[in-house]
Amino acid sequence: MVGPDQAYRAPSQLASVVRPGDTVKIAPGLYHDCTVWKTDGITVEATGPGTVLSDKVCQGKAIFVIHADNVTVRGITFEHARAKDRNGAGIRAEGTNLTVEQSTFIDNEDGILAGANKASTIIVRDSEFDHNGSCVGECAHGIYVGRIQLLRIEHSRFLDTQVGHHIKSRAFRTEIVGDTIEDGPDGTASYEVDIPNGGAVVMTGNVIEKGPKNQNSSAVVSIGEEGIKQPSPELLFKDNVLTNDGPPTAFVKNLTSTPAQLIGNIFKGNAVRPLIGDGTAL
Description:
CATH architecture: 3 Solenoid
Helix content: under 10%
Oligomer: single chain
Number of strands: 31
Radius of gyration: 19 Å
Strand content: over 45%
Strand order of the largest sheet: 1-4-7-10-13-16-19-22-25-28-31
Number of domains: 1
Shape: globular
CATH superfamily: Single-stranded right-handed beta-helix, Pectin lyase-like
Distance between the termini: 53 Å
Largest sheet: 11 strands, parallel
């Protein structure tokens, strides 16, 4: 247990104590603290709403720097992460396999940031990303992952991302299912989803809004913008609803040679071209 009335008053005090299989339970409150987690197979979770970690980053990287494998984070709010390289994250994932559930990321440079790890799966579900992003120095985003095996985002919300992309993924496979991705009136995001080097992409049942202040009206989803470096065996976009409140745009800009499949998507608002590049739109 972590809390003002507990023996451990901050999560970082537990970092050297936890053992594989342990659960760290953090009581509601505001903690100006950061932690480097090195123990595999742990769960770090809030015991109730209002559990907030704010302002402080470890190793110049993130509020939680996770070097461990098979970690679950649940119910925690991460806010105001700033780093000298302007790439501070709520969570920096450096191990293999991370699950984030029911968590909130507010006003960080990156919400979640992960480097390359070809064996790793990152799953994000039932979480919220509000007013993250930056492009001072290296660009930062709502979620940004390097070459991992799988990024799957389920039933989560992205709002008011600034300058960067809501989601940027170099994963071999990216699945975005049942999410809400909105610029809103003041969001200045570039792409809603950027898949810069190719890879399989499945987007189904999402509600998407491109706002009037977006900084890149060329597309909502871009695939291969930085060069194709990995196979794209599947590009499926099904039953998504897009509202365009900005200049005319394309829903999918596909720069790979794999035909994209667009099925049952609905477009509202200003002009939307369904597809640029190879594929079909039904």
